[in-house]
Write a structure and sequence with these properties.
Elements (H helix, E strand, L loop, with lengths): L16 H5 L2 H18 L4 H4 L7 H14 L5 H6 L4 H5 L6 H16 L5 H32 L7
């Protein structure tokens, strides 16, 4: 009896390969829950934690839903919240390099605790730097526009 060889899995970032590698919706929710738990535990993440509501359930839901679609799975964020504009949604917060790195550090630690392939964890963390950098640039652009509208630096 011969068996046909299995086709190799598509590379991460194609189709739903990343969504599947993350463990589907349940795996993504575990990742997000661990991420927010770590953010609450780590002193270096205090500033980013304070940018969220005290009750983190809505933030957990939004990040889980976003990651589902972003990783090639169902577009759960759009189903509930409509189109997502990550940089614009975060532009009102004081996010610089330290805050972006604190966010990514919490995500790296959360990923380390997940039963996912190590190459997928590295891939995901690398890919998450893209929206983190876009958010940081959007904040910098907003701050520059505010500074330009008040060339004297008056705060009144």
């Amino acid at each position: 009896m011969t068996s046909e060889p299995h086709a190799p899995a598509p590379p991460y970032g194609q189709g739903d390969a990343s969504f599947q590698a993350a463990g589907g919706e349940a795996g993504i929710r575990r990742l997000v829950d661990r991420f927010f738990d770590l953010m609450a535990e780590r002193p270096g993440a205090v500033a980013i934690l304070k940018m969220h509501p005290r009750n983190l359930e809505g933030s957990r839901d939004k990040l889980s839903r976003f990651l589902c679609g972003w990783l090639g799975g169902p577009k759960r964020y759009a189903e509930k919240y409509g189109p997502i504009k990550i940089p614009k949604a975060h532009a009102r917060f004081p996010i610089g390099m330290p805050e972006a790195e604190a966010w990514l550090d919490c995500m790296a630690a959360a990923l380390a605790d997940q039963p996912m392939a190590e190459d997928f964890k590295a891939y995901l963390l690398r890919e998450l730097r893209v929206p983190a950098d876009r958010i940081r640039r959007a904040v910098r652009t907003r701050q520059a526009a505010e500074d330009a509208s008040d060339p004297c630096g008056d705060t009144e």
